[in-house]
Every structure is written in structure tokens, then in C-alpha cells.
Amino acid sequence: MKVANGKISLMIVLCALVGAFATGCATEKAKNKAKEAAARYWQDKAYPGKSFDVQVTEAEAADGGFRVKGIVDGETRVGFFNPDTENFSEGYYSLSHERGRKIAELEQEARYWKEKAEALEKENYKLKVKLGVDEKKQ
């Protein structure tokens, strides 16, 4: 009877270890899925054509999903991954930050084109003056 109880105890311990291992693997798999979703989001949607360095640093369980932290082009980003819907989002504040960044890029581009147009106008004026001087000589 003692041998049977020992085998049963050993089987219970083994089943508990296998169950704990399987649960740990499932958690790691979900964390990896959250990290992959964050990397895809930051690379494809948040910075289309502009993100060159995306590093997802960690994913931790929080309120029915995973809170994911990463570094995108030197800037720290945080988002939330919901494993039920397989949806990743950064929320309103990140979107407003993106909007502000886009506005700053457009303002910088407008300044560049304005300076370029002014330089071309100066060059055009110089050519007209030179052409006028050359016409007077002939």
C-alpha cells in the first residue's frame, strides 16, 4: 500500500510540474505575441515609412492583456495588447503626439520650400540684371 501511495504522490507532483510548465509556456507565448503585435504596429501604422529602429523591450500582464514597452527611433513608447481581440493600441495621447509631430514636420518642410523659392527668386533677379547689362553693351 505504501508503494502505491508513493507512486500516486510522485504522479501528482509530476502532473503539477507539467501543468506549471505548460502554463509558463502559454504565458511566454502570449507575451511574445504581444511583443510581435507592438513591433508590427509601431513599424507599420505609427510611423509609416519612417521607423528605422524599433525595439520592444518588455511585456507584462495587466488588466486582461499585456502592457508593452518599446523604443521607437530613440523615443520610449507604451501600448496595450488585448489577446482576446489580438488588438494593439497606444491610446489617444500617443495619437495626439503623432499629430503634433506630423505638424512640426510639415512646418519644417514649408520653411524649406519657402527658403528654396526665395533663393531661386534671388538667382532669377541676378540673371535678369546681368541680362539687362549685357543688352545695354550691345
What does this structure look like?
- There is one protein chain.
- The protein has 138 residues and is an alpha+beta fold.
- The chain contains 2 helices and 4 strands.
- The chain has a 4-stranded antiparallel beta sheet with strand order 1-2-3-4, with helices on one face.
- A hairpin with a 4-residue loop joins β3 and β4 (87-89).
- The longest helix has 46 residues, at 92-137.
- It is rod-shaped and about 115 Å long.
SSE inventory with pairings:
Blueprint: H1 2-46, E1 54-62, E2 65-72, E3 75-82, E4 87-89, H2 92-137
Antiparallel strand pairs: 1-2, 2-3, 3-4
Tell me, rounded to a whole number, the average pLDDT: 75
How would you spell out the order of helices and strands?
A: HEEEEH
Q: Structural class given helices, strands, pairing?
A: alpha+beta
Largest sheet: 4 strands, antiparallel
Q: In which order are the strands of the major sheet placed?
A: 1-2-3-4
Ends distance: 126 Å
Helix content: 55-70%
Oligomer: single chain
Quick take:
This protein has two helices and four strands, in the order H-E-E-E-E-H. Helix content is about 65%, strand content about 20%.
Task: List descriptors.
138 residues; alpha+beta; 2 helices; 4 strands; 66% helix; rod-shaped
